[in-house]
């Protein structure tokens, strides 16, 4: 009988007053892909950190290939062959592929780097991953994101990985790049490597995984063979109950549009975008990656400059040249990249909510009114159902869904007339996605004009009162609620000539 590659029993972990993991068990077999799924805050990230040696469990036992395993650092985990590849490649852009793979752990002979031996090993790894041998000497900065991710995997394998943790590996990849990633994973498992796979894209599990462990409220509630599950069943296990099949039906106003984009253009990104949004209406902009959807949102908010067409607000032309201009006009934006554009990671929730509203929350416009800042933060925490022990908790310590709600809270402090949301639920789990959609609908019900720019097809169909397709930088077709995924995807991909509206 083959020993399990990795076993964890009765694992728990507490951070101060917050119990991140109550009870977790996990068994990973050799040569398999084992998914860990759960809502944001369920304990997945903490469990992965414990396996990677970045955190120590408070209780429980771990075993590696049948022998007790004790981890006090990431170096200990590396010694067992436990390697982690994160969503965003952790590489040096100016170094070559070969240099990145061996940086910090060079092969040495006679006190010097053994370049020939390293080169031979790099070629072996590139062949395993399906990359051309010539990539060995290419600078990583010249590679695509998908190729950089493969280099990250090669770097992990150079350390003789027996367990490879892939943390949201497909979040920044196109569909074709995901297929390349899956091919790599299959070759790895064929060679005996165990892969722990973390993803919010549940449909992917059924294409690549053998087993699925579900976490909820800090506990592993069970492990299932993938053949015994469906996407719906996984979601119900994650949230602890049945899910609704149909989105809620909404009635919208027939008032004059509050926001109008007329043949809007931004050179190099999009060229002919025409959309209108009424008060109380949620209008979706859906397009595949590279269609220009995200850039449209940035132009409306003044982060990019339009090079053609015009923007009308309440019937009057506007030309925001900076986010401050948009804010003064009552336009708010939830950015697509919350980490780079929306968060001060090591600052508390209260700071992250108040930072764009200093004139409103300051005394004599000189110093911050801390009592008012706290009151506003607590109000937003309650209004958006943000899970946190305190408004002073650093946003970096929060789950992805709750962090996204904090960034959204900042946009709502001064009650915007127009709310632009770019990829509002990217990287958050099913439960958090439903919560954010509920908030968006509530804002629309209060009269806010909402424009949602997304590359998530299910989100586009579920949240929009009207849905515009963006293809090759141009708005093409408009769909009403109830449109099928097949018709919308065909329109976005340019294969809709014979699909009826």
Q: What is the approximate shape?
A: globular
Strand content: 25-35%
N-end to C-end Cα span: 58 Å
Whole-number radius of gyration?
24 Å
The mean pLDDT is 85
**How many structural domains can be distinguished in the coordinates?**
2
CATH architecture of the largest domain: 3-Layer(aba) Sandwich
Q: Give the helix proportion (percent range).
A: 25-40%
Using DSSP, what is the number of strands? 24
How would you write the strand order of the largest sheet? 6-9-10-3-11-12
Largest sheet: 6 strands, mixed
Category from helices, strands and their pairing: alpha/beta
Low-confidence stretches: 497-501
The CATH topology of the largest domain turns out to be: Rossmann fold
How many helices does DSSP assign? 18
Structural overview:
Helix content is 34%, strand content 25%. The chain has two domains: 6-239, P-loop containing nucleotide triphosphate hydrolases (Rossmann fold), CATH 3.40.50.300; 259-493, Rossmann fold, CATH 3.40.50. By secondary structure, it is an alpha/beta fold. The chain has 18 helices and 24 strands. Mean pLDDT is 85; it is low at 497-501. The strands form six sheets. It has a six-stranded mixed β-sheet with strand order 6-9-10-3-11-12, sandwiched between helices. Strands 18-21-22-15-23-24 form a six-stranded mixed β-sheet, with helices on both faces. It has a four-stranded antiparallel β-sheet with strand order 2-1-4-5, with no helix packed on it. The longest helix is centred in the middle third of the chain and has 16 residues, at 175-190.
């Amino acid at each position: 009988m083959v020993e399990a590659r990795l076993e964890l029993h009765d694992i728990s972990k507490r951070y101060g007053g917050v119990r991140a993991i109550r009870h977790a068990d996990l068994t990973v077999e050799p040569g398999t892909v084992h998914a860990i799924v759960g809502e944001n805050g369920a304990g997945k990230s903490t469990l992965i950190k414990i396996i990677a040696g970045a955190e120590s469990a408070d209780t429980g036992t771990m075993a590696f290939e049948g022998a007790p395993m004790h981890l006090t650092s990431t170096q200990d985990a590396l010694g067992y062959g436990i390697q982690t590849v994160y969503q965003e490649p952790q590489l040096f852009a100016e170094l070559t592929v070969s240099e990145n793979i061996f940086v910090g752990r060079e092969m040495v002979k006679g006190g010097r780097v053994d370049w020939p031996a390293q080169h031979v090993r790099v070629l072996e790894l590139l062949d395993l991953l399906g990359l051309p041998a010539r990539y060995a000497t290419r600078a990583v900065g010249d590679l695509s994101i998908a190729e950089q991710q493969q280099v990250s995997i090669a770097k992990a394998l150079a350390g003789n990985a027996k367990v490879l943790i892939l943390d949201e590996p497909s979040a920044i990849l196109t569909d074709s790049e995901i297929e390349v990633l899956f091919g790599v994973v299959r070759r790895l498992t064929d060679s005996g490597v165990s892969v722990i796979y973390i993803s919010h894209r549940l449909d992917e599990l059924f294409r690549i995984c053998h087993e699925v462990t579900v976490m909820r409220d800090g506990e592993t509630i069970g492990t299932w063979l993938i053949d015994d599950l469906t996407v719906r069943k996984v979601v119900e296990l994650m949230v602890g109950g049945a899910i609704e099949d149909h989105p809620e039906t909404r009635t919208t106003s027939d008032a004059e549009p509050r926001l109008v984009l007329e043949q809007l253009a931004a050179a190099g990104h999009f060229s002919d975008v025409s959309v209108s949004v009424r008060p109380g209406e949620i209008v979706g902009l859906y397009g595949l990656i590279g269609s220009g959807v995200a850039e449209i949102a940035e132009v409306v908010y003044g982060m990019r400059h339009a090079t053609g067409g015009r923007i009308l607000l309440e019937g009057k032309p506007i030309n925001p040249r900076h986010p401050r201009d948009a804010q003064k006009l009552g336009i708010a934006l939830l950015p697509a990249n919350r980490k780079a554009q929306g968060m001060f990671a090591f600052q508390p929730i209260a700071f992250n909510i108040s930072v764009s509203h200093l004139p409103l929350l300051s005394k004599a416009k000189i110093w911050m009114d801390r009592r008012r800042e706290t009151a506003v933060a607590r109000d937003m925490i309650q209004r958006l159902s943000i899970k946190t022990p305190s408004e002073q908790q650093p946003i970096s310590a929060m789950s992805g869904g709750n962090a996204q709600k904090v960034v959204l809270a900042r946009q709502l402090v001064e009650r915007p007339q127009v709310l632009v949301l770019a990829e509002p639920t990217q990287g958050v789990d099913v439960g958090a996605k439903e919560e954010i959609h509920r908030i968006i609908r509530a804002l629309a019900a209060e009269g806010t004009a909402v424009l949602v720019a997304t590359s998530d097809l299910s989100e586009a169909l579920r949240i929009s009162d009207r849905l515009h397709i963006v293809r090759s930088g141009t708005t093409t077709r408009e769909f009403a609620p109830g449109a099928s995924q097949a018709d919308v995807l065909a329109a976005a991909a340019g294969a809709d000539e014979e699909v009826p509206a």
